[in-house]
Write the structure tokens for this entry.
Amino acid sequence: MYCLQCLIPVLLIPKPTNPALMQTHVMFIVLYLIGFFLERKPCTICSLVFLMAVFLICNSGVGNCLFWGNCEGHTCDNG
């Protein structure tokens, strides 16, 4: 489980409150994860544990997911 040492903080990075910064946040998270998986090549168990944690966080409630924001009830236009 040493592989999860650098993956768990990704789950704790707070999402920006400004909807215009959400695309930058998502791009940072995705690029960090791609770089991590290409460079460190974590074991299968750690990868599955991390993906299961992301899946459970995204399905636990509205607005909790790392990859998209909560745009219900107000506009999330970037312009």
Observations:
- The radius of gyration is 14 Å.
- Helices lie at 8-12, 22-40, 44-60.
- Residues 22-40 form the longest helix (19 residues).
- The CA atoms of residues 17 and 68 lie 12 Å apart.
